[in-house]
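How it folds:
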Amino acid sequence: MNFVLHLTIKCGNIKESAGGLAPATGLKNKEDLIMAYVIGEGCLECGACAAQCPVGAISEGEGTYVIDADACIECGACAAQCPVEVITEE
């Protein structure tokens, strides 16, 4: 059985065919391939990242903003907007 793995490079979205990811990748889920961004210490709570997130994956937490790893599409828009550069790939 052949599987096709389609990548959308622009925002890092991964689409999979019926049956899962291609067996040659050794991955069972697209979540195994995607690593969300995280907001580290030093967040100013300015909200610039949340305003730039195209999928609304960033919300205000306690003392910092947080990124929902399940919703993050790895586009990097948040990291580009962070004035203190505390957003990195997990």
About this structure: Helices lie at 48-52, 77-81. The longest strand covers residues 5-8. Residues 1-19 have pLDDT under 50 and may be disordered. The chain has two domains: 1-34, 35-90.
